[in-house]
Amino acid sequence: MSTNPLSSVIAPPALVQRLPAVDTKAIQALDSAHFLHPFTDFKDLAGHGSRVITRGEGIYIWDSEGAKILDAMSGLWCVNVGYGRKELADAAHRQMMTLPYYNSFFQTTNVPAVQLAAKLAKLAPKVGERSFQHVFYSSSGSESNDSNVRMVRRYWDLLGQPQRKVIISRINAYHGSTMAGASLGGMSGMHAQGDLPIPNITHIEQPYFFENALPGESVHDFGVRAAGWLEAKILEIGADKVAAFIAEPIQGAGGVIIPPATYWPEIQRIVDKYGILLISDEVICAFGRLGAWFAYEKFGYKPDLVTFAKGVTSGYIPLGGVLVGDRVAKVLIEKGGEFNHGYTYSGHPVACAVALANLEIMEREQLPQRVRDDIGPYLAQRFVEIGQHPLVGAAETCGFTAGLVLVKNKQRLERFAENLSVGMICRGHCFSNGLIMRAVGDRMIIAPPLTMTHAQIDEMVALITRCLDLTYQEVKKNGWLA
Ligand code: PXG
Question: Is the distance from the beta carbon of residue 252 to the nearest atom of ligand 1 less than 6 Å?
């Protein structure tokens, strides 16, 4: 038995395998004594203790009790290249030994930050006349969206239109957890804590067909109507007061809400008509998740700013940022004057070095193409089968992410009462059966590493089916089916 349980928790994977098991109880006691977890009911957690994750390899993670778990969420939508990539550790080590930190304030720069900016500019496809030649760095998606708010305001100020302040977002969107990020997001639970949103941020309904379509409405018509809510909001506020519209290409944390094909072209028409900036928050959707380097490429729209984080380093080290399109960059650069905004870790050399190594892996293994042409279509095929399950009202995929809705009546697509928390019951079965799948209300969602093989997709689908069966038996026993 190790005398210091922490020593085995922080040891590298190869070593952990040979070390005695972690003292789970001791770690859990320290955890609840000192660590306030994000988005957590602290009192509830203290009652039963956290699950302690000790290592990862490929698409699997292991907990301190030795259980092997298939991580169908890539950590938190980020470990795109899978766990245990030595190249990324080597890149961090090399950079730490060369220059672990220097700032990019005061007209200084560092080599990895410059190289990464140039690399991202190359990977981001040009749309029409617009290209992305510039990057503003942060350390997370939330910070990046704060930077977006600052940049958008600065842009309109420099153009002599300071009254253009309102940013329109969507209900059930997730754009982070800082004051601006949570305000841009459309989560009512977050707004309720902290007097949010901050001024000049407003929301329209989301393009969620299953919930918001009219009886008998086609998906095609619903997409156009849902985009129309943006135009209605612009007219309500006054077009001359609207600065930008921000949206995730697919709403991730909101439950993998995939908009109809007609939605994005109509959104583009509307933002063009009123001249407002378009921000594509691709924190989840970029870097191969949807089968392209960037999601705007897949959906064919033309954003002015693109938020990124997570997959840029596959989550191995924090890094985020904004791709700044020509329209905004030109004004910020040519009009001059200092932009009074930035972070200690903007362009952190170690994070940028890891990102470069991560993108190299993604290019070498052609992960975006693999999602588009191979594992994405295979996942879609397997999800058609999952859609047949008696508990599943709808099952959809896009690239390498998927969502399904649990219903109490498959024919009438009737939903369970919210307080039954059927999604959480299903998630519980997933945990006990060695599968990480998220529950967002009664939507069960996945976003697995982009390195998954067909055999591993089969293994995951078998686990999902087993957990759906177990949930079905439980809700049936409780008399909750209709
Ligand atoms: N934008 C989007 C689209 C995101 O998905 C953020 C911004 C914020 O990124 P940071 O790095 O500040 O967390 C995110 C993050 C969930 C979940 O429950 C999703 C996220 C974060 C935490 C939980 O699915 N996405």
Answer: yes
